[in-house]
Write the structure tokens for this entry.
Amino acid sequence: MQIPQMDLSRQHDQIKQELIDTFIEVITANQYILGERVQQFEKRLAKLTETNFAVGVASGTDALRLSLAALDVKCGDEVITTPFSFVASADVIVRAGATPVFVDINPTTYNISGEKLKSAVTRKTKAVIVVHLYGLPCNMTAIQPLCKKRDIALIEDCAQALGAEVEGRHVGGWGTIGCHSFFPTKTLGGFGDGGACTLNDAELAGRLSSLRVHGSVKKYYSEEIGFKSRLDALQAALLSVKLKLFPRWAKMRTAAAKLYTERLQDLPIVLPITPPGRLHAYHQYTIRTPQRDKLFTHLHKAGISPAIYYPTPIHLQPAFSFLGLGAGSFPEAEKAAKEVITLPLFPGITVDEIDYVAEKVREFFKP
């Protein structure tokens, strides 16, 4: 049996004709940049996340980058984030001219430690970027009040977590700005790059809308230095089609994760957890074992495509060597990077496929 890490065709086959019809409608209308299609999608995304505004941009990375610009993060400022994430979470801080300050993770959730975050705040702290890794929301009931009390902007990196909740509230609405990615493999994926910011502040939403078009409110009149970061009308239209099936696909992810947990729970591995009050989006089903590399090879030989998110913490990446943070700086993130492995999980994965993956994992630990 050959089992991929992700099979997008199982989603797209369900709506293939509607996607084709939508594509034809967009190219017939000859409106490709922003416009009505983008506005419609923004309204639907804001409704899903229960926020007042959504601003479509070119990628999840740009959502983070424009958020820092809209919050006036600049040289001399510090922005706190996690070292255990995709590098974009920290790249944007450096690009803004600020200094990334890393805080180690909670070893059971892989998210930034709320307790350790408190001691990292200084008078230079302008913002905190939390990452809802693998689809599990951070401890927002602790982090959000801390940021509010210290008057620190809170940015949520929701790239892997659309659909996740904390105490019944969707991610992307807890912080000052929520940043979303529509990279094809995300819980809501487009057909190329795309992203969005969700928020409740009208003035901040207006500034984000301006920044994405070179700092312009009206055509050919730039009020500040901005960016070119617009969500294409075609991507917005196709995402709107997929958004209708998003709740169903989210339930399929949860059901698949439940099956994995049932079949693997008696093995010497660490399974994903969901703390009370949180709803996991299961963008990825990530387990943990000190024998990760051997397990990876075993599964690969069996026709299974596991993945490792992420094998090198950000502070140990060559691009961040200028910070002078060597091995041992963030032990929990470094240990997790050596032990995590993600099993195939996507809408449409079959029970037989889950059984086969679980069987091969069991075979590794109990020959």
Observations:
- The radius of gyration is 21 Å.
- The chain has two domains: 9-243, 246-365.
